[in-house]
Amino acid sequence: MNAFPKPSLRPFLASDLPLLSEIRFAAIEELTVEDYDDAQRRAWASAVDDEEAFAQTLEKGLTLVALIGGGPVGFISLQGGGLIDHLYVHPTVARTGVASALVEAIEKLAAARGVATLLTDASDTAKPLFEARGYQATRRNTIEIDGEYLGNTRMTKSLAPKAAPDGRP
User: What is the rounded distance in angstroms from the CA atom of residue 168 to the CA atom of residue 23?
Assistant: First the structure.
């Protein structure tokens, strides 16, 4: 197994959009093969084709980009209400800690901003990662895209309240 360096993280820049779109597409096409069939992956990929809507989502949320060697390899986006809306890593860095680093960072930032609970609609592919980080499944969802039905799981995690400097919660 190759040893990958720990990624550096930075906020999303508008210039990241083309590469993040490629990462998202590659992740859907390659990383979800065991969980979703060809038709489901095609529908999912086609549903994320709207670059303008994608850019608006990333800009309105708190979006972090993971970099290795100066280039983007993954990203996560936290929307209002504590919703983790996007978490994608490039297939070449899958299972190397990039997604975990992104989730850990977003949890810390959300807690610092006073978010009490994070939630996500995790794909079947991402569900084990969230489970390993202490997220609890609350319901199963089925979404329909272009006549294809895809399952995901609503998961939540309570964040510890930030302690005051004098030690009181």
Answer: 42
117-123 vs 83-89, strand pairing mode: parallel
**Residue 168 burial class via C-beta count within 10 angstroms: exposed 0-12, middle 13-18, buried 19 and up:** exposed
* Of residues 2, 6, 21, the one with CA closest to residue 68: 6
Higher-confidence residue of 167 and 36: namely 36
For 144-155, the pLDDT digits (tens) are 998 999 999 999
Q: Looking up tokens 């936290």, which residue turns up?
A: 78
Candidates 26, 79, 24; CA nearest to 56 is: 79
Give the residues across from 88 on adjacent strands.
75
Q: Kindly report, residue by residue over 53-101, the tens digit of the pLDDT.
A: 889 999 999 999 999 998 999 999 999 889 999 999 999 999 999 999 9
Find residue 117's DSSP bridge partners.
158
d(CA 168, CA 1): 45
> Can you give the pLDDT at residue 5?
79
CA distances from 28 to 31, 52, 145 (A): 6, 19, 14
